[in-house]
Amino acid sequence: IKHGDLIFLNMIALELACFIAFVLMRYELQRTVLTNRSDSYAVEAVCIAFSDLAVVFFMEPYANILRRGRLAELYRSVQQVAIVYVINLILMYFLHIANNYSRLLMGISFLISIGLCFLARVLWKKNIRRRASSKVPTRSMAVVTTEALMQETLSNIAEKTFHSYWIPAVFLMDREVPADSCAKAAAAGEK
Predict the structure, then answer these.
(1) Global pTM value
(2) Residue 172 to residue 55: CA distance in whole angstroms
């Protein structure tokens, strides 16, 4: 699954936000709403998980995530969390369980979710960039191109990817270039 790590982190952030909001509001909820229904908030957590999977499946919120700045990432985090909570409310309404939940708790969990999802994305992207900036190749790739486009292709791979690739061979339409000339061409592309 593409972006499986980010999907997993986002789901953990959403569930953690529900838990934190529940812990913060527990005493208030015990006085007003929550007598013996604390286990029913587990249903809300499951609904949020399904809502998040629906948003990921239909909206592709992680497209070009590594190229986004922090402000664009904050906007996309707010957008995704808002849609998840709207779907969650609709789902709870159709299941006839919306009246069992505190709106204040959902509002607090919504705000915490925005912060945690944004923080998880920014920190994970920082981790990916840090691993990518290390000059140790983590993946190998054979390049198939034409001789006229070889330099441009290798420089694009060196500049526009977030992984460091080891290129063992470049296959041209008419001949094969050995690995040592490929390394020279890749070094020329990095300059």
Answers:
(1) 0.66
(2) 42
